[in-house]
Amino acid sequence: MENAFKSPMFTSEVLKDQVLVVTGGGSGLGKSMSRYFLQLGAKVVIASRNLEKLKNTAQELEAETGGKVLPVQCDVRNYKEVEAMLAATLEAFGKVDGLLNNAAGNFISPTERLSANA
Protein backbone atom coordinates (compact mmCIF):
# COMPACT_ATOMS: atom_id res chain seq x y z
CA MET A 1 0.00 0.00 0.00
CA GLU A 2 3.03 2.30 0.29
CA ASN A 3 3.02 3.14 -3.44
CA ALA A 4 -0.72 3.79 -3.60
CA PHE A 5 -0.37 7.58 -3.52
CA LYS A 6 2.84 8.07 -5.48
CA SER A 7 1.43 7.99 -8.99
CA PRO A 8 -0.68 10.82 -10.39
CA MET A 9 -4.45 10.50 -10.43
CA PHE A 10 -4.76 11.70 -14.05
CA THR A 11 -2.73 11.18 -17.20
CA SER A 12 -0.51 14.07 -18.25
CA GLU A 13 -2.74 15.06 -21.18
CA VAL A 14 -6.21 14.70 -19.68
CA LEU A 15 -6.78 18.46 -20.11
CA LYS A 16 -5.02 18.78 -23.47
CA ASP A 17 -6.47 21.62 -25.57
CA GLN A 18 -8.70 22.77 -22.70
CA VAL A 19 -8.70 26.43 -21.66
CA LEU A 20 -9.23 27.12 -17.98
CA VAL A 21 -9.66 30.50 -16.29
CA VAL A 22 -8.47 30.75 -12.69
CA THR A 23 -9.41 33.86 -10.74
CA GLY A 24 -7.03 34.54 -7.88
CA GLY A 25 -4.43 32.65 -9.91
CA GLY A 26 -1.41 34.75 -8.97
CA SER A 27 -0.61 33.03 -5.69
CA GLY A 28 -1.67 30.44 -3.14
CA LEU A 29 -4.21 27.81 -4.08
CA GLY A 30 -5.00 29.46 -7.41
CA LYS A 31 -1.36 29.28 -8.44
CA SER A 32 -1.05 25.67 -7.27
CA MET A 33 -4.18 24.59 -9.12
CA SER A 34 -3.05 26.46 -12.23
CA ARG A 35 0.25 24.59 -12.10
CA TYR A 36 -1.59 21.27 -11.93
CA PHE A 37 -3.91 22.18 -14.81
CA LEU A 38 -0.84 23.06 -16.89
CA GLN A 39 0.80 19.76 -15.99
CA LEU A 40 -2.34 18.05 -17.26
CA GLY A 41 -2.09 19.84 -20.62
CA ALA A 42 -4.46 22.81 -20.23
CA LYS A 43 -3.85 26.37 -21.29
CA VAL A 44 -4.53 28.61 -18.30
CA VAL A 45 -5.68 32.20 -17.86
CA ILE A 46 -4.76 33.56 -14.44
CA ALA A 47 -6.53 36.65 -13.21
CA SER A 48 -6.29 38.94 -10.19
CA ARG A 49 -6.04 42.62 -9.35
CA ASN A 50 -2.21 42.63 -9.25
CA LEU A 51 -0.88 42.46 -12.83
CA GLU A 52 2.80 42.46 -11.81
CA LYS A 53 2.27 39.41 -9.59
CA LEU A 54 0.35 37.70 -12.40
CA LYS A 55 3.12 38.31 -14.93
CA ASN A 56 5.75 36.88 -12.56
CA THR A 57 3.55 33.87 -11.80
CA ALA A 58 2.86 33.28 -15.50
CA GLN A 59 6.59 33.27 -16.31
CA GLU A 60 7.31 30.93 -13.41
CA LEU A 61 4.52 28.48 -14.32
CA GLU A 62 5.44 28.45 -18.01
CA ALA A 63 9.09 27.76 -17.16
CA GLU A 64 8.12 24.94 -14.78
CA THR A 65 5.55 23.24 -16.98
CA GLY A 66 6.20 24.26 -20.58
CA GLY A 67 2.53 25.26 -20.75
CA LYS A 68 0.88 28.48 -21.87
CA VAL A 69 -0.37 31.02 -19.30
CA LEU A 70 -2.18 34.28 -20.03
CA PRO A 71 -2.09 36.78 -17.14
CA VAL A 72 -5.06 39.17 -17.10
CA GLN A 73 -5.67 41.91 -14.57
CA CYS A 74 -9.24 41.64 -13.30
CA ASP A 75 -11.15 42.65 -10.19
CA VAL A 76 -14.00 40.12 -10.17
CA ARG A 77 -16.21 42.70 -8.45
CA ASN A 78 -16.08 44.85 -11.60
CA TYR A 79 -18.38 43.62 -14.38
CA LYS A 80 -16.49 45.45 -17.14
CA GLU A 81 -13.18 43.92 -16.04
CA VAL A 82 -14.73 40.44 -16.03
CA GLU A 83 -16.03 41.03 -19.56
CA ALA A 84 -12.57 42.28 -20.60
CA MET A 85 -10.99 39.15 -19.10
CA LEU A 86 -13.37 37.00 -21.14
CA ALA A 87 -12.58 38.98 -24.30
CA ALA A 88 -8.80 38.62 -23.71
CA THR A 89 -9.22 34.89 -23.17
CA LEU A 90 -11.25 34.44 -26.34
CA GLU A 91 -8.75 36.56 -28.28
CA ALA A 92 -5.79 34.46 -27.07
CA PHE A 93 -7.29 30.97 -27.02
CA GLY A 94 -10.64 31.12 -28.83
CA LYS A 95 -12.69 29.50 -26.08
CA VAL A 96 -13.21 28.88 -22.38
CA ASP A 97 -13.75 25.31 -21.17
CA GLY A 98 -13.81 25.93 -17.45
CA LEU A 99 -13.70 28.52 -14.70
CA LEU A 100 -12.18 28.13 -11.26
CA ASN A 101 -13.56 31.03 -9.25
CA ASN A 102 -10.85 31.30 -6.61
CA ALA A 103 -10.61 35.08 -6.15
CA ALA A 104 -10.81 36.25 -2.57
CA GLY A 105 -14.29 37.25 -1.57
CA ASN A 106 -13.47 38.70 1.81
CA PHE A 107 -14.34 42.28 0.99
CA ILE A 108 -16.52 44.02 3.54
CA SER A 109 -19.71 44.97 1.75
CA PRO A 110 -23.44 45.05 2.48
CA THR A 111 -25.14 42.00 1.00
CA GLU A 112 -27.32 44.08 -1.31
CA ARG A 113 -24.15 45.43 -3.02
CA LEU A 114 -22.84 41.95 -3.91
CA SER A 115 -25.18 41.57 -6.88
CA ALA A 116 -24.48 43.08 -10.31
CA ASN A 117 -28.12 44.21 -10.28
CA ALA A 118 -27.74 46.35 -7.15
Give the termini separation: 54 Å
Instruction: Find the structural class using helix and strand composition.
Output: alpha/beta
As an assembly, this protein is single chain
- Spatial extent as radius of gyration: 16 Å
How can the largest sheet be summarized? Answer: 4 strands, parallel
Low-confidence parts: none
How many DSSP helices?
3
Specify the overall morphology: globular
Instruction: Going across the biggest sheet, name each strand in turn.
Output: 3-2-1-4
Strand content range: 15-25%
Give the SSE string: EHEHEHE
**What is the total tally of β strands?**
4
Short description:
The protein is an alpha/beta fold. It is built from three helices and four strands, in the order E-H-E-H-E-H-E. It is 36% helix and 17% strand.
Tell me what the structure shows.
- This protein is an alpha/beta fold and 118 residues long.
- The protein is 36% helix and 17% strand.
- The radius of gyration is 16 Å and the shape is globular.
- 30% of the residues are buried.
- The mean pLDDT is 89.
